[in-house]
Every structure is written in structure tokens, then in C-alpha cells.
TrEMBL record:
Coiled coil: none annotated. This is 4-diphosphocytidyl-2-C-methyl-D-erythritol kinase. Catalyzes the phosphorylation of the position 2 hydroxy group of 4-diphosphocytidyl-2C-methyl-D-erythritol. Keywords: ATP-binding, Isoprene biosynthesis, Kinase, Nucleotide-binding, Transferase. Gene3D superfamilies: 3.30.230.10, GHMP kinase, C-terminal domain.
Amino acid sequence: MLTFPNCKINLGLHVVGKRADGFHELETVFYPLPLKDGLEVVTASGATTFTTSGLPIPGHAADNLILKAYQLLQKDFPQLPAVQVHLHKHIPMGAGLGGGSSNAAFMLQILNKKYRLQLNDATLIAYAAQLGSDCPFFIRNQPVYATGRGEIMEDFALRLDGYAFLLIYPGIHVNTGWAFSQLQPQIPAYSLKAVLQQPVQHWKSTLTNDFEIPVTKAHPGLAAIKATLYQHGALYATMSGSGSAIVGIFEKNTLPDIKWEKEYQVFKIN
Ligand SMILES: C[C@](O)(CO)[C@H](O)COP(=O)(O)OP(=O)(O)OC[C@H]1O[C@@H](n2ccc(N)nc2=O)[C@H](O)[C@@H]1O
Ligand SMILES: Nc1ncnc2c1ncn2[C@@H]1O[C@H](COP(=O)(O)OP(=O)(O)OP(=O)(O)O)[C@@H](O)[C@H]1O
């Protein structure tokens, strides 16, 4: 079975409290975008194997969230056969785009479908939450308002079909745990839902991602990327998640051709 795990961006991101388990309570709107990896799973004749192509993935293959997803289900469904998995990596990592989380959530869904485990979405979300805070979103994979660690989700009626997106990844790998450690949780001064219900043009003056200040302090070049997007007509620009990808939202068919530093990865979604 071949699937194409997509990425997410966060539209507004508030870290509102620290929990006893060390994780943080947050509030965000997750929005899926069609920048994708390729993930194929076939039944293996021998042992389970995992191969990759495309962008090199830091860390050991054995720690990959895709294998963790397989092992998580195998604990409860020992009848799962060995599988041959191939991942083609295209979504930048350490970018705040949730690529690894998306891979893990898609793996759960593939195994559920292919081997008829009959798990409903609520159960898949509970498994996904054990793999990472961003994973549950990719089971829903439609715009949601999320709280808790991100696993408490409600549909959010935001459709940005009339807009185009420019994603800039400057090659800075941001460690999510470090980014959370730089923050002082606080209650937001505005209603996230109310701002996102206004036209995109209105977001610039109000909508914030709490990670932007500390991550930009550590990597000042990020501020210039955001400023450049605004100079070239972005209606709204923000860092996604804990960074370092910056996303600009433009009117459809108005994406500018900007000369970026040559090490930046640039993705156009029209
Ligand atoms: C910043 C976001 O991308 C916003 O969507 C997510 O909250 C991060 O989700 P994620 O990458 O799936 O993060 P996880 O793999 O669950 O956690 C990585 C590390 O980030 C910190 N972490 C993560 C999520 C959370 N709600 N509170 C935290 O404090 C913890 O130190 C944790 O060890
Ligand atoms: N399937 C996977 N794809 C990408 N990275 C993975 C995967 N499984 C584990 N990882 C590890 O997760 C790290 C973060 O990659 P990911 O694509 O999830 O970035 P991210 O969205 O910024 O997530 P995070 O906020 O957790 O850093 C990688 O550096 C890698 O070591």
C-alpha cells in the first residue's frame, strides 16, 4: 500500500501551561498542506525491513517513528505480519512541519486498513498520542482547533483554498524539547478562534506563535525571512510549530519569485 503523508502548519500557537509530566498545554489551529513524503508498506516474505530515500534522516533507523508505530500496534495485534517499509523523505525535518509525526500516523492507518484491524479514529488517535504530540492531528488531517498536548481536537471551519503558500526552510534544525524549554507559558491576550475567523489580511496585527520570539532570538536570520515575505506581498507570515520553517500566505496566483540564500529549501503551494 502506497500513501503520501503530508505536512501541517500551525496557525497561531499558544503555550498556556506546564504539566506535571513535563509536557506543555497548548492551543493551536493545525492546518494540513500538500507538501508530502511517500510511504509504502508491503507484506514481507522474511523479517521486517525499513529503507529510506530522499532527504537523509538524522538518528538511527531503529528509532524511526514509523517502526515505533508498527511495534506499538504489534504489541496489541501479534498477528501482524512482518512488513517491508520504504519511506521517501521530502518534508524537511526539525522544521515544525510535523513530517515524522505524519509518517507515524499514516503508518498506523496503513496497518489498520491493510490488515483489517478495525480500529476507529478515536482508537487510532489514542495510539498516535503515544508516539508524539503532533501525531493525533494527522489521523484527522483536516483543520482543527487543538488543545491539551494537541490531541484534543475539534473541527475548525477554516478553508484557505483561495490562497497560495510559500514555505521556506532555512536549514536550521530546531529541537522541539529545547524550544519548549525557552518559553514561559502564559494565557493569550486574544481569542485564537475569533482572530482566525477574520479574513487572512487581519491576522498580521494579532496572530502569534509563542515560539517565534525565543527561536528567532537564537537564529536571528528567521526575522529577515519573515520580513522578506511581507515585503513581497504576503498577507500573513509565521513560523510553523517550533520552527524553523517560515510560511507565507499569499493571494492565489501571486506567489513571488524571491532570490533566497542557496541553502534554503523553498516550496510553493499554489
Ligand atoms: C510544537 C508543536 O509542533 C506544535 O504543533 C508540537 O507541540 C510538538 O510536537 P512533537 O514534535 O510531536 O513533540 P513530541 O515529540 O511529543 O515532544 C518532543 C519534546 O517537546 C516537548 N513538548 C512537546 C509537546 C508538548 N505539548 N509539550 C512539550 O513540552 C517535550 O520536551 C518533549 O520531550
Ligand atoms: N519518519 C520520520 N521522519 C522524519 N524524522 C523522524 C522520523 N522518525 C523519527 N524522526 C526524528 O524526528 C526528528 C524531527 O523530525 P520531524 O520531521 O518530525 O520534524 P518536526 O516536525 O520539526 O518535529 P519535531 O518538532 O519533533 O522536531 C528528526 O530529526 C528525526 O531524528
